[in-house]
Structure formats: C-alpha cells, structure tokens
Amino acid sequence: MQNKFRAISLSHKSAPVEIREIIALDEATIHALLVKLKDFFSVTDTLILSTCNRTELYYSHELDLSSEIIKLIGLEKGLSSIIDYLEYFKIYNNDREAISHLFKVSMGLEAQVVGDMQISNQVKRAYQASADLGMAGPFLHRLMHTIFFTNKRVVQETAFRDGAASVSYAAVELIEELTSNIFEPRILLIGVGEIGKDVAKNMVHLPNAKVTIANRTLDKAETLGSSMGFDVIPFENVVEAMRESDVIISSIMKSEPFITKNLVKTFDISSYKLFVDLSVPRSIETSIEDVPGVLLYNVDNIRSKASETLENRLASVPKVEQIIEESIDEFYNWKKEMMVSPTINKLKNALEQIRLEEMERFLKNADQKEIEVVERITKSMMQKILKVPVVQLKAACQRNQADGMIEILSDLFDLEKVNEKK
C-alpha cells in the first residue's frame, strides 16, 4: 500500500477560540509529538503548525491515523476527554486535498484576515522543526520549496499581500508611519481585550518601540506583557504614563470618553502626540484634536483603510488560486516521476547485475585493455536498452497509467526477486 499525504485541522473555521486555546501546541509539545509520531507510527514527511487560529498536523502514511494522532495530542496536553473535541477537527485523507489545504493555509487564503503575512513565517518555522528532527523526506522538502516559490509568485504577481487588512495591523502600520522620525517611540496600550491583544501581538513589527501596557485587570496585562516582553503598569498610573508617551492606543470599554480634552490640555506636548481610539463606543473625545500637537485617529478611519485593502485582497483571490493550482500541478508531475523512480532503479540494478555476471563469465582470461573495451560497450548498450522503458514510464506517469507499466516491467524482469538477491 502506498503512502498518502494527509492532514488533521482544527481552525477558526471549525472551532471557537476557547477550544483553539485548549488544543494549541507550544514548541516543546510540538517537538515531543514529532518524536512520538516517528517512534510509535513511523510516519514520514510530518509538519505540525500551531498558531492562535489553527492547530494542524500533516503527515504521510499508508493508513488513516487521525484518531490515534488526536488521542496522542490529548495525551501530550493532559486532556483526558480529547474525544469530546473530535467534532472540531477536519480530516483530509485525500492526497491532493491535503496538499491543496496546506498551500491555501501557507498563502493566507484560510487565515482569519485573508492574506495574513505572518502565516508564511509560521509555516517556515514548522518546516524547520520537522527538518531538524529528520521528519522531512524528499516529498516534504520538495512540497515546501514549491510552496515558498508559490508565495513569491503571489507577492510579485498579485495585490494579495499589499497593505494591512485587519484593524489591529492597520493601527500598527499607521503608528509605524507616523513615528518613523522618532527614535524608540514610547507606546502606551490601554486595554487588552480582543482588539488590544491583537494590537499588542502586531507590535512585533515595531521592534524599536518601547511598549507599555495598562489594563483594569492587572493579571491580564501581566500575562500578555510577560509573553511579549512589554512593560506593565497598574491602571491607576495610566495618566502619568500618557504624559510620557509618544503614542496612546485606547481599547477599553466605557460608556463615556476616558481621555478628555481637559485631560489632554494638561499634557506638555513639545512636538506631537498620537492618539489611536480603537474603542466602540469611542473612549477618546474627538475635541482633543483642538489641542496643539495632538493627532487623533479612530477605529472608523483605520477600518476604512483596512477594508479597502481587504477588498483588493479578495479581488486577487482568483489569481492566487490559479497560481496555487499551477504549482500543485507542477508538484504532482514531480510526484508522479518520483513514484516510478524505484522501478527505474530496480531495472537499472537488474540489468547491471546481468551485465556484471556476463562480464565475469566471459572475460576471465581477458587483459585489462579488452576488459575496458567490453566495459564501455556493455554500459552503452545498457543505457540504450534502458532509455525506452524510462521514457515510457515517465510518459505513463503523465497519463496516470504508471501503475500498470510498473507491474508489467516488474513481472517481465522479475524485479522484486532480482533486487532481493542484491
């Protein structure tokens, strides 16, 4: 039975965030899973991808191991009731469907924010983890490099990766643009709800910024701050922190504005201070723009920018899908040829064995010069004999008829028996 490439997926499309958080895998768990999959099931060409929006496992095996693998994930996570989560996993046992899914995930077509740029780096890290443990064979190496090349084509030939398509990323992109002339800009993030948390995660794109977090519940701020390497202050110190910051991002739930014109008038603004209001309802009075040196952007400004980008990305989807299909077809042509390679090698070995046996039989009394002449002649003959079967085998691959020809050649030359003797 031939190995098939398969996939197990739990994502934002199939599971709510509470479930995704339970199933999410850290680096240590991924490493442990890869080792156990190799030792317990002898799987090959394995890739484990775990992000905030998805946990996926790709593998090659002749059998569907999805149930065993999900149970193994539960074991690693200490979940005694992993069976309760089975409905959230989607299983891809069709070879082409699993490959197509990995392409779409890697390009960002399956991302919560279509065209998400972070996913390609996350896929590269997952591939590196597999390669480091010897879990990537010729199949996965070729597949991943085809994906990386496809990603370059998408960037170069479409508008799919242009601009920021999420509010949180668009906000960070705006901050980067407006603080480009400030050395190590001081950024204060107030509120770590869903949007605030996303903004914090996107701050990795501002490596020189000094980020401080304030939240009414200090524990939440400290958890996020420690994972991102940001400073955390008690909420009662937030006004003083605003005075010292170049950028203030407000993402808090409040029935009336938290940052008022009267408050901002007390700040000593030597150059300018940027305020970004991501709250709904708004938590910053629009009148603060009357204060000299104040720049204010609200969620509507930023969402408009993100929506325009998203529309351009969605318009590019058909072209991206076309590029993916072209790449998959190209990969399958290689995969088909790989399928006949073992037979070609067996045939070469069988003919070489016959050649060597006959050389030994008839050249016992020949001198070195005669042996060299016969060596050249017999090798040349062997190559010519091989040429037609090899060409025909590769042509049969393109017609999806390789299985029949492999069987005929194996029977004609008794390849299995010949290679067992070798």
From TrEMBL:
<comment type="similarity">
    <text>Belongs to the glutamyl-tRNA reductase family.</text>
</comment>
<feature type="domain" description="Quinate/shikimate 5-dehydrogenase/glutamyl-tRNA reductase">
    <location>
        <begin position="174"/>
        <end position="303"/>
    </location>
</feature>
<feature type="site" description="Important for activity">
    <location>
        <position position="101"/>
    </location>
</feature>
<feature type="binding site">
    <location>
        <begin position="116"/>
        <end position="118"/>
    </location>
    <ligand>
        <name>substrate</name>
    </ligand>
</feature>
<comment type="function">
    <text>Catalyzes the NADPH-dependent reduction of glutamyl-tRNA(Glu) to glutamate 1-semialdehyde (GSA).</text>
</comment>
<feature type="domain" description="Tetrapyrrole biosynthesis glutamyl-tRNA reductase dimerisation">
    <location>
        <begin position="319"/>
        <end position="415"/>
    </location>
</feature>
<comment type="pathway">
    <text>Porphyrin-containing compound metabolism; protoporphyrin-IX biosynthesis; 5-aminolevulinate from L-glutamyl-tRNA(Glu): step 1/2.</text>
</comment>
<dbReference type="Pfam" id="PF00745">
    <property type="entry name" value="GlutR_dimer"/>
</dbReference>
<keyword id="KW-0560">Oxidoreductase</keyword>
<comment type="subunit">
    <text>Homodimer.</text>
</comment>
<keyword id="KW-0521">NADP</keyword>
<dbReference type="InterPro" id="IPR036453">
    <property type="entry name" value="GluRdtase_dimer_dom_sf"/>
</dbReference>
<dbReference type="InterPro" id="IPR036291">
    <property type="entry name" value="NAD(P)-bd_dom_sf"/>
</dbReference>
<feature type="domain" description="Glutamyl-tRNA reductase N-terminal">
    <location>
        <begin position="8"/>
        <end position="158"/>
    </location>
</feature>
<dbReference type="InterPro" id="IPR000343">
    <property type="entry name" value="4pyrrol_synth_GluRdtase"/>
</dbReference>
<feature type="binding site">
    <location>
        <position position="122"/>
    </location>
    <ligand>
        <name>substrate</name>
    </ligand>
</feature>
<protein>
    <recommendedName>
        <fullName>Glutamyl-tRNA reductase</fullName>
        <ecNumber>1.2.1.70</ecNumber>
    </recommendedName>
</protein>
<feature type="active site" description="Nucleophile">
    <location>
        <position position="52"/>
    </location>
</feature>
<feature type="binding site">
    <location>
        <begin position="51"/>
        <end position="54"/>
    </location>
    <ligand>
        <name>substrate</name>
    </ligand>
</feature>
<dbReference type="InterPro" id="IPR006151">
    <property type="entry name" value="Shikm_DH/Glu-tRNA_Rdtase"/>
</dbReference>
<dbReference type="GO" id="GO:0008883">
    <property type="term" value="F:glutamyl-tRNA reductase activity"/>
</dbReference>
<dbReference type="InterPro" id="IPR015895">
    <property type="entry name" value="4pyrrol_synth_GluRdtase_N"/>
</dbReference>
<dbReference type="InterPro" id="IPR036343">
    <property type="entry name" value="GluRdtase_N_sf"/>
</dbReference>
<feature type="binding site">
    <location>
        <begin position="191"/>
        <end position="196"/>
    </location>
    <ligand>
        <name>NADP(+)</name>
    </ligand>
</feature>
<keyword id="KW-0627">Porphyrin biosynthesis</keyword>
<dbReference type="Pfam" id="PF01488">
    <property type="entry name" value="Shikimate_DH"/>
</dbReference>
<dbReference type="Pfam" id="PF05201">
    <property type="entry name" value="GlutR_N"/>
</dbReference>
<dbReference type="InterPro" id="IPR015896">
    <property type="entry name" value="4pyrrol_synth_GluRdtase_dimer"/>
</dbReference>
